[in-house]
Amino acid sequence: MPWMNHFSSLGCSLITHLYTHLVVLNFIYMAPLITLNGVQQRRNSWQDGVYGTNCPIPPGKNFTYVLQVKDQIGSYFYFPSLAFHKAAGGYGGIKIASRPLIPVPFDPPAGDFTILAGDWYKKNHTDLKAILDSGSDLPFPDGLVINGRGSNANTFTVDQGKTYRFRISNVGISTSINFRIQGHKMLLVEVEGTHTLQNTYDSLDIHLGQSYSVLVRADQPPQGYYIVISTRFTSQVLSATSVLHYSNSAGSVSGPPPGGPTTQIDWSLEQARSLRRNLTASGPRPNPQGSYHYGLINTTHTIRLQNTAPTINGKQRYAVNSVSFIPADTPLKLADYFKIPGVFSVGSIPDNPTGGGAYLQTSVMAADFRGFAEVVFENPEDTLQSWHIDGHNFFAVGMDGGEWTPASRLTYNLRDTISRCTVQVYPKSWTAVYVPLDNVGMWNIRSENWARQYLGQQFYLRVYSSANSWRDEYPIPSNALLCGRAVGHRT
Questions:
Q1: Start and end of every Plastocyanin-like domain (predicted)?
Q2: Which of 49, 165, 349, 471 is most buried when burial is the number of CB atoms within 10 A of its CB?
Q3: Partners of 201 in the beta sheet?
Q4: Boundaries of domain holding 457
Q5: Based on the structure, what is the number of domains in the chain?
Q6: Pairwise CA distance, residues 376 & 369, whole Å
Q7: Which pLDDT does position 30 carry in this prediction?
Q8: Which helix (DSSP H) or strand (DSSP E) does residue 133 occupy?
Q9: In terms of DSSP H, where are the helices of 239-359?
Q10: C-beta separation of 94 from 76 below 8 A
Q11: pTM of the model
């Protein structure tokens, strides 16, 4: 499981062990947490790295995450999840390879590149946090970066005639991006752990928190070519470039970078609908991806989640079903395990929009282990939303404009949609997903727009099993940090 480091701005180091999957963290200046976006932490929300499950790592101390990337393959990333640390960097790529005996539906590429792209602000993360704490919204980003650097600071060298894999993640905090490579087609092969039908694209929209893998063949005349990212759905378009360099060329890039789509929502929606699973390809196990007939499973319940942007106590907040999340003084997972009263209440967020006034609450929704939920994200606002569910992959069965109704189910793709962990909801639109609730624990459901997440657009889903068995959930780690009202308890 190779990793990429990008921790200079946080003053910390990350070390991984390929076989035992230990992640040892040492932080010098602050008390953060690291979460692995898309890694499911099977039976192990103890290691999820968000404040609902873990205490912050004290400055100057070490903490070791012990995790198993069970039944997963694909491209993901990690980042600091507390406060507004994500705006400072501290992110990196995660590659989970298939086991050697399981066939992959494409030939091994000649090289494998990770591209971590997103928006960037001149103000540091503490200043941005102060803006939000004051009740204001973030300013427009100052630019975009690729692997932490500005335009043309990165060069990816390829040999003519060979094929390369690019794993692209949007690690920004506020903006969707479009990705393209001058003069080259991209063959989409994987989205967040799912092998896809291998459609060819000139450019790809990648929304906040999402990860894609494409194959690019170096089949053009030997010279330099622009790799371009640009903002989507913004009145002002920002862009940044890197260079695809042919090893047998002494030339550099020339001419203007290729333009891309800007505000066209219909174009992006149609591209999103074109993403399909490769039903005959094996996933992390040798059985074909199409052997899981999600469309034939009866859903156990429907959850409708509507995002809003209310003002509460004179300040800008963001809410889900009228509830704006506030952190408790103790991680919810610890309070649940030690049965500490008064930290949270299960059912403190409704599972349907209420239309009532927004309010502050440490919101936790109940869910039964082995349920199969239909979750509908409803977006009545004019801005694009991006939603992530920790601990689970889900099937993105439908998305469209307007209001969702039960009749919308007639448009669902119940055969070969993508299984993923992060999905977009277009302005004044809805997106529906099917979620197998097969992972016991306390799991964060959040906006990947980090200002919205920080100001309340998130909650926790408590997937509960009454069996109290290690078969369903691992015991609390012996090195679990204790804080808040959990201090004094024993692991």
A1: 24-99, 112-249, 330-466
A2: 49
A3: 186
A4: 289-486
A5: 1
A6: 19
A7: 62
A8: helix 125-133
A9: 265-273, 332-337
A10: yes
A11: 0.94
What is the average pLDDT across 33-37?
96
Q: Does the structure show a pLDDT above 50 at 7?
A: no
Residue 400 placed within a domain: yes
Q: Could you tell me which residues come within 8 angstroms of residue 380 by beta carbon, excluding any fewer than 6 positions away?
A: 306, 307, 308, 428
φ and ψ of 325, to 5 deg: -70, 135
Residue with tokens 């059985």: 287
Distance CA(170)–CA(189), nearest Å, equals: 17
Token pair listed for 78:
């990690």
| Phi and psi torsions of 407, nearest 5° | -65, -20
Six-digit token string for 457 = 């657009």
* pLDDT, tens digit (0-9, with 9 covering 90-100), for 115-143: 999 999 999 999 999 999 999 999 999 99
Q: Tokens for 86?
A: 């994500």
For 435, half-sphere exposure in the C-beta direction (CA atoms, 13 angstrom radius) is: 30
Residue 251 DSSP code = -
Residue type at 239? S
Contact by Cβ (8 Å): 203, 178:
yes
Task: Please give the mean pLDDT across all residues of the chain.
Answer: 93
First to last CA, the chain: 29
Alpha-helical segments (H) within 279-364: 332-337
Is 482 domain-assigned? yes
Cα distance between residue 488 and residue 491, in whole Å: 10
Residue 3: which of 58, 65, 82, 87 has the closest Cα?
65
DSSP helix/strand/coil, 288: strand
Per the domain annotation, does 267 fall within a domain?
A: no
* Nearest CA among 437, 361, 424 for reference residue 388: 424
C-alpha 360, offset from chain centre: 25
Q: Kindly state the tokens that stand for 461.
A: 């889903």
Q: Is residue 53 part of a domain?
A: no
Tens digits of per-residue pLDDT, 454-477? 999 999 999 999 998 999 999 999
Give strand pairing partners of 93.
77
Q: What is the rounded CA–CA span in Å between residue 295 and residue 297?
A: 6
Give the pLDDT confidence of 233-291 residue by residue, as tens digits. Answer: 999 999 999 999 999 998 889 889 999 999 999 999 999 999 999 999 999 999 999 99
